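Hello again, I could really use a second opinion on something today. I've dropped the whole record in just underneath, so have a look.
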Amino acid sequence: MDSSYNPNPDWDQADWHRETTAVRDALAALGVIVPACAPGDPDDCGQPTWTHYAGYLAILKARTQTMILANLGEQPGPPGSGITDLAHHTGHQLYEEELARMLKELE
């Protein structure tokens, strides 16, 4: 992989490392331990920091989705809420609404 490639030219290596570490810390707080092997870490594996960032975010998305399913299940929401499947509402509907809002902020 071309080590000079940077998918976000507004970020330098320090930005990538800071954000990657923050996502790795969030994963650890949720009980998912991933190796500290990005550039600048003790066990640098040789891959660019941005690939770790993307991979860790994918793992974070999967972890949060499984937490929603495991902890909320297919049960109705609070009485009067009209929510028939709390996990679906939280994991899909609310997610899609927040994603749309956040994407709009990027415009």
The chain has two domains: 11-72, 75-107.
